[in-house]
Amino acid sequence: MKKPDILARVTLLGLVGFLVGRILNDFRTAHFTLTTWSIGQLMGRLGLLLLISFLAIGVHELGHALLGKWQGFQFQWLTVGPFRWQREGKQIRLRWNTSLAAAGGLLVSIPLGDHQLRRRYLRFAAGGPLASLLLASVALSGYVLLSTPAFSKPLGFSLVMTVTVSGAIALATLLPLHLGGFASDGARLLTFWRGGPASQL
């Protein structure tokens, strides 16, 4: 990839992050009354945020797994944070994840058979972002239906952070980027949609 291309994509990512931050800040200002949290409350919120992040990552990767299953892919392994689920024979076993690079969520599934691979990979790649958008939509609906619970309360905080984290994951993974040897979902979708050399499997 050429340096100008990398610079353009990093700039785009930064711009998207800035815009999302502005939107969230305006939304917070309009709907939330800030309160002063104690150290215990702050630590509790940070713990919730960590759990929500693991949940959002797990849902994203499970979206890939489910669409992959539908398209005839065989699950091999999945990592979310410190956890790793892997196929051992006909069973799926839980192990500790020892790879820091995979802690942010990684799924490996392989296609069974070589029929219609382009279409199958397109749907497989779309599974993660779709699952993330679905989770964000469900959390947002819950927030609205529950008469706007206060952001200072654990439930309100959890719902808003789920919308934010899952929505951000969907947005970030849909950007067509190649970082650290990994192609984003957006990059893979674009490749298979265009039907370039990399899609001729």
Number of helices: 5
Regarding quaternary structure, what we see is single chain
Tell me the number of structural domains: 1
Strand order of the largest sheet: 3-2-1-4
How far from one another are the termini? 21 Å
Shape designation: globular
Q: What proportion strand?
A: 5-15%
Helix proportion range: 55-70%
Q: What is the radius of gyration?
A: 19 Å
Describe this protein's structure.
The protein is an alpha+beta fold. 60% of the residues lie in helices and 15% in strands. The protein contains five helices and six strands. The strands form two sheets. It has a four-stranded antiparallel β-sheet, with helices on one face. The protein has a two-stranded antiparallel sheet with strand order 5-6. A hairpin with a 2-residue loop joins β1 and β2. The two termini are 21 Å apart.
SSE layout:
Blueprint lengths: L2 H29 L7 H32 L2 E8 L2 E6 L2 E6 L9 E6 L5 H29 L8 H21 L3 E2 L2 E2 L1 H10 L7
Antiparallel strand pairs: 1-2, 1-4, 2-3, 5-6
Helix pairs in contact: 2-3, 2-4, 3-4, 3-5
Characteristic terms for this protein:
two-stranded antiparallel ribbon, disordered C terminus, 201 residues, 60% helix, 5 helices, alpha+beta
